[in-house]
Write a structure and sequence with these properties.
Layout: E1 8-16, H1 20-38, E2 51-55, E3 69-70, H2 73-78, E4 89-92, E5 95-101, E6 106-108, E7 122-124, H3 126-139, E8 143-146, E9 150-156, E10 159-165, E11 168-170, E12 176-181, E13 185-193, H4 200-209, E14 220-229, E15 239-245, E16 254-262, E17 265-273, H5 283-292, H6 294-300, E18 304-314, E19 325-326, E20 329-331, H7 347-366, H8 372-375, H9 377-383, H10 386-393, H11 405-417, H12 460-465, E21 479-481, H13 484-494, H14 499-502, E22 508-512, E23 519-523, H15 533-537, E24 543-545
Parallel strand pairs: 1-2, 1-13, 2-8, 5-15, 13-20
Antiparallel strand pairs: 3-7, 4-7, 5-6, 9-10, 10-13, 11-12, 14-17, 14-18, 15-16, 16-17, 19-20, 21-24, 22-23
Helix pairs in contact: 1-3, 1-7, 7-9
Length: about 550
């Protein structure tokens, strides 16, 4: 394709990603402008309409997915009186319970661990919550652009100078279609990467500038979730239930959840570490089995699944957070790993990271100095805030589970009495994909398979249908495979093509060849729910997820 003429836009700040972190940053910036101008010190160093927020989903909140139980600490700071402002909080948490499941039974922990107590928190739909935040930002004058993905970071020498948005109307071979529109080059004094877990631009920035030197690698879980309408009398509104044990093995990190948004509406899900040793492990399949447990089944039977989604969760914690400030840019929220895996919460940390980032940006723009040193105020301030305090207490939590559930549980207990230290001062970790063992070790070993019944259990395609995922079919592939020969050769024998299993949306398929020459990898890219698992878990690290044409992907209404 010949190089298109792109329009260049000048922004004060461009935020890539309209999730809780990105919108908190934009909203806090707008508040700071208002406070500054109210003090009579005009002109402000930036204006709200020159804060651009890009969202790759077709609308604000479309790609926002979480359990979700919200700790309102950051919300109280950002939007005092949030209830009066009609924050969409479905219900306060009314009860908490933790169960350990065996294949056919369950026992309830007599006392909940302190980190799983949710008194004072709220069950929310993150999709609705983020939409609401979007309206606040819009009302404050911020410029929101839904359906625009950041596809390339722009540099001016060594300084981040903005982002390029996606070209629209390009066919599968990279040729312009009649509706072709080139993306914009958005130049900004400060670029904020708030792309969520395993952001494609963030990943590249960290690699290019070596921002993770001395850090633990980021470790992830994959969470799969369904929203169910259930008959009355099965659960009480406001109930929060977590499970450990079955169907995960004792070598795995993770567990299940049930959050009752209403007496007849529950969010259920299973979260499992992407460091599973068995290349055949399939989180979506394990989740379907989870629902077949008699204890779960008795809650769901007669109900109806109405929504599905999946997303990676950054769980590396304190020691995995990269350098967050560079010349001209900051990394915030899940993109940087601001998430407490012990408490199973990240929304409040993402929001607070966005707010602190906004304060650093405002100061930097006031001083006309957006260097890494000036923007480093963000790093210094989050480390001096309750964000640091909370993450420090859980600093070794996820890594403690590297050798299985029981050792992890013992370490977690030790961490409780040692302020987060546990059995080691600093636990290291390896990237998740390095834990995957060779196919030969598992070949012939039984793997439980279920046949989905379409009532309680579903295959991946039925679930994808319930994620309302849509992509323009005729567009360049957004899953870049560096070498298909590895997929169709080495990976077949070495790992048995684990992408078929770990992708929760049936994107990867090993298709038999008509001439009997074996199977070849087929990619059903339009099923992709943007969870990023393949980019993380592929054992050869040859899959790169890049944003498809803006506006494509899931539509997580009510999730
Ligand atoms: Fe997730 Fe990758 Fe599958 Fe898309 S292709 S749904 S990002 S694992």
């Amino acid at each position: 394709m010949t190089c298109p003429t792109r329009e260049t836009l000048q922004a004060d700040v461009v935020v890539v990603g309209a999730g809780p972190a990105g919108l908190s940053c934009a909203l806090r910036l707008a508040q700071l402008i208002r406070e500054y101008e109210a003090g009579g010190k005009k002109p402000s160093p930036l204006s709200p309409e020159n804060i651009y927020v890009l969202e790759k989903g077709n609308e604000i909140g479309a790609h926002s997915l979480s359990g979700a139980v919200l700790d309102p600490r950051a919300l109280e700071e950002l939007v005092p009186g949030f209830k009066a402002q009609k924050a969409p909080l479905e219900t306060p948490v009314r009860s908490d319970a933790v169960y350990f499941l065996t294949p056919s039974g369950q026992w309830k922990l007599p006392v909940n661990p302190p980190f799983l107590r949710n008194h004072g928190n709220f069950i929310i739909s993150l999709n609705k919550f983020v939409k609401w935040m979007g309206t606040l930002a819009e009302r404050a004058g911020v410029s929101l652009f839904a359906g625009f993905a950041g596809v390339e970071t722009l540099f001016d020498g060594g300084r981040v100078a903005g982002v390029r948005t996606d070209d629209k109307g390009v066919d599968r071979n990279g040729r312009p279609k009649p509706n072709f529109q080139p993306g914009y080059d958005i130049h900004a004094k400060v670029t904020v990467f708030a792309e969520g877990p395993r952001g494609s631009l963030t990943k590249e920035l960290i690699r290019k500038l070596g921002l993770d030197q001395g850090c633990n690698p980021q470790n992830y879980s994959l969470g799969v979730k369904e929203l169910w309408e259930i008959p009355p009398g099965r659960i009480e509104r406001g109930a929060v239930i977590h499970t450990a044990g079955w169907p995960l093995s004792s070598r795995q990190f993770g567990g299940g959840f049930i959050y009752a948004l209403a007496d007849t509406l529950v969010a259920i899900g299973l979260v499992a570490g992407l460091d599973a040793p068995d290349p055949r492990f399939d989180v979506h399949h394990a989740f379907q089995r989870f629902k077949m447990h008699p204890w779960m089944k008795s809650r769901l039977e007669g109900g109806q699944m109405i929504r599905y989604g999946a997303k990676a969760i950054p769980e590396g914690g304190y020691f995995a957070i990269p350098q967050t400030a560079v010349d001209g840019a900051l990394i915030i929220g899940d993109a940087a790993g601001f998430l407490n895996s012990e408490r199973l919460k990240g929304i409040h940390l993402a929001m607070k990271s966005g707010m602190i980032a906004a304060e650093a940006i405002f100061d930097a723009l006031s001083k006309k100095d957006c260097s890494a040193a000036a923007l480093g105020q963000f790093e210094r301030h989050w480390r001096a805030s309750w964000v640091n305090e909370e993450l420090w207490k859980a600093r070794n939590y996820r890594q403690g589970f590297e050798h299985g559930f029981w050792l992890g549980a013992a370490d977690a207990a030790a961490q409780l009495v040692t302020g987060g230290r546990g059995l080691h001062a600093r636990r290291g970790s390896r990237p998740d994909y390095e834990h995957m063992r060779r196919w030969a070790e598992f070949e012939g070993k039984p793997v439980t398979k279920i046949r989905p019944d379409g009532q309680l259990t579903f295959d991946k395609l039925s679930d994808v249908y319930h994620s309302a995922t849509r992509h323009e079919e005729d567009q360049p592939p957004h899953l870049h495979i560096a070498d298909f020969n590895i997929c169709n050769g080495r990976c077949v024998t070495e790992f048995g093509n684990p992408c078929q299993y770990f992708c929760p949306a049936a994107v990867y398929e090993m298709e038999p060849q008509p001439d009997g020459s074996g199977k070849r990898l087929k990619i059903n890219a339009s099923n992709c729910v943007h969870c990023k698992t393949c980019d993380i878990a592929d054992p050869y690290q040859i899959i790169t997820w890049v944003p498809p044409e803006g506006g494509g992907g899931p539509r997580y209404d009510g999730m």
